[in-house]
Amino acid sequence: MRDVALSGGKVTFQLANTGNSHYLPTAIAVRGFTAAGIPVQDWPVSGWYVLAGTTRTFSVPLERPACERVRSLLVEVRIGETTLKGPLATPGGACPD
To answer: What superfamily does domain 2-89 belong to in CATH?
Structure first.
């Protein structure tokens, strides 16, 4: 996972496959937390195959009112027994301006 970012109320990230066979994420979610680390909301994401030698970009819109309380985000991607985690601090909130 790379390039986890927030812009215009959307979380974006990429899944890259530098190997020589495809993989299918079994679960993808963006999780929002308050400044105290209390879960606010999970946004599930539909995954699809990431073919060998390619990169797939994901974009997840964050809705109000939950995004107003979010101060950090965590992108979690499960691939088989492995879970990738991409944290992102959002001290000013996660809603679009």
So the answer is: Immunoglobulins (2.60.40.10)
